Structure formats: C-alpha cells, structure tokens
Amino acid sequence: VLIDRVARVTRGSTFAVGWALANIIHLLNQTNGDLAFPVSWLNLMVALWVLGRPTSAHRLAGLAAAQLLDTVWLAPFVPDHQVLAAFVNIAILGGYFALRRPNSSDELLARVAPGARILLLIAYGAAALAKYNSDFLEPLRSCAAFVADNATYGLTDAESPLAQVHIWGTLVIESLVPVLLLIRRTRRWGVIFAAAFHFVVSLSPAISVADFTYLLWPLFGLFLPSRDMQEIGRRVVEAWRGNASVNRYDRVPRWVFAGLFSVVLLIAASSGPTVFLFVWLFTTFFGLWLLLTAIRVLRELPAQVEPIGPLHPGQILLALAMLILVLGPYLGFGTSSRFTMFSGLRTEGPGTNHLFLPSVHLIDSQNEALVVVWSN
Fold this sequence. Notes:
By secondary structure, this protein is an all-alpha fold. Helices cover 65% and strands 0% of the residues.
C-alpha cells in the first residue's frame, strides 16, 4: 500500500525503495525501535515518505538530506555502513542540484550511479584489504572466528577446524567481490555472488548486521543493467499488488499507514526484543525472496552489461575523499568509521599487524596504545 499505485516501476524507483528500506532497517536495527533523537524520527518519516512515491527525485533527495543530518548528529562514532551511506547521499544531493532539481528519480539516479559505484568499490575494497593482517588469520584472535562462533551459538569456536574455513573463506570472498564487480564479464553474476554472501552473513539472529546487508543491496543493484534492476523491482511490486490483503486496503491514504506504523513503533520501543524479532524476520524472509527473484531475472533475461560510467567532477572529489578516509588507519588517523570493521586491524603504537601495508603516523594520536594483557 505504501508503494506508488500508479507510476511504472523503473530503475530509479526500485533504487529509491531499496534505499528507503535500508534506512528504516538501519534505524530499527541500531536502536531496537528506541529512536531517542528527533533527527532519527525525521529520518524514519522521510523514508516512509519516499516509499509513498519512489519515482520522485525530490523525495529521494529529502531522504539523502535527512540521513546526512542523522550521520552528523551521531558523529564522530558512526557505523561504517552509515559512512558509506553518507558519501552516497552527498552524491545524491550533488546530482539533485547539478540537474536543477529534476522530478524523476530515474534522471537523478542516472547522474548518481557512476559515483555511487566507485564509492562502493573503494569502501568494500578497503574493508577487504584491512583483513590482510596477522590477527585476522589467527583463529584465537580472528574476528571471522569470533563472528562464526557467535552466529552458530558456539558450534564453531576458534579451536574448531571450521574456524580456518571461516577465516579464509571470508578473506577470499570479500577480496573477490570488488574484482567481480569491476570485470565486465563477471559483473552481472558478481552482484548475485556479493548479495548472497551478505545475506548468509546476516542470516543468524545472534549477530545484528542486517542493516549493512540491506544498505549494500541497492548499491550492488547499480552494477546491473537498467533492464535487470527494473524487472526485479517490477516482479516484487507485482507480487505485492497481487496480494488480496493489500488490495483490500488500497483506498486508505498512505499517510494513515505511516502514522499507524509510527504509533506501533512507539509502543514496541518499550520492548526491544519485539522490534529485533520483527527486523530479523522481515530481513530474512523478504531478503530470501528478493534474492531468489533476482536470480530468476538474471537467468531468464539475456545478458547485458553496462559500463561503470564516467564520473562528474564532484563525484571525482567524493571518490578522492573516500580514498583518503580509507587510507586513514595507515596514516595514523585511527580506525574508527574507516571500513576496518570485523578485521582486527591494529595500526596504533610502534608497529602494525598488517601483512604488507606499513603504518606511517602523520600525527601522534596513535603513537601510544594501551594493550589489555589479561582480564576476568
């Protein structure tokens, strides 16, 4: 009911729906429904507003502005995926004003897509690169072994032979993703490979990374031809509109549903586990359906490949800024919000645990480090 009843499903509207859903899942997953800040409620309301008319470039730009405001509010300790979203949102706003406030989200996305693709490749490549360190490869200290242990509720602990499988599997897969997306011949199915990997990573309710997965999915979709992305969106909306329960309430104004959703969220906020269970169920079952739909579309439609695309001057500056940010840990500017999550990378103190990248401290904030030797 929230999705536009009239407009034709397009690549732009498909991306807008994905971007709005990613924002809603991020907000609920990070807070378990307890949106303590007014800017978070604003962010949520604008995301619902986008779902009401995803063909509107004005609404997509409004969401980009609301997300940026939320990111600034939380700075400097912002989750890595929110940093990536912030860069993409700057690209969206830059494209919106460069095109003199276009009406169509398709027109806006055509301008933004090349820059968003490059931003994703840089951020994802940096996350993979950070894992090439001695601690990540050591089962007793590896983040991969720790995550696998938690995700399987202790079935594959650090001393299990499967720990090495998780470590090397993660390293190989994350290294392959940007390569597959870059190469024209592998790009189309590379999207499915990357999306499936992150779906599996976020499958366990014991680890809360569904917000990262759902942020990446619409960005992965930008590497597909317009026809493929549009067809995926069309099939999802067609199934949604074909549902009898949805059609029964089709005449109810969308703002009523948005208001009811907010009221339910306010009530559920007093029970974090309720919101957590809702997010996990939605991201798991809807995510599986979406992934299977994408696979069917790519199997049925003849292969097409689109270029990464030329970057506009503003997008080149954004890409350089992202590159400087991800190099920060190796230049002495810290590892927080720099795509080193779940890597175990250490660049503080007199040395680094990276296998081949040195740590050159341009400033002294990382010169000294406190090492925990033992704790109870």
